[in-house]
Specification:
This protein is mainly α. It has helices spanning 11-19, 29-42, 44-50. It contains 3 helices and no strands. It is globular, with a radius of gyration of 13 Å.
Length: 69
């Protein structure tokens, strides 16, 4: 196994997994996958760029209890 940084080269595989029902968000599964697909469709470049956020400048995270951090 080789760990890689997110890249547009891997985006098609990521989209295919989302379309098959995979989601990194196990508490929201299908809804989270659809939201991610929508963000990719709106701006794929920004989506990929936002996956590496070492300065924590990205989107807030919604926790299972609904709180946003």
């Amino acid at each position: 196994m080789e760990l890689v940084l997110p890249s547009s080269a891997y985006l098609a595989g990521h989209v295919a997994a989302l379309e098959r029902g995979w989601s990194a968000d196990s508490s929201r599964e299908a809804a989270a996958a659809q939201e991610e697909l929508t963000r990719i469709q709106e701006d794929a470049g920004a989506f990929v760029q936002g996956l590496v956020d070492r300065e924590a400048q990205g989107r807030p995270v919604t926790l299972p209890d609904g709180s946003i951090v």
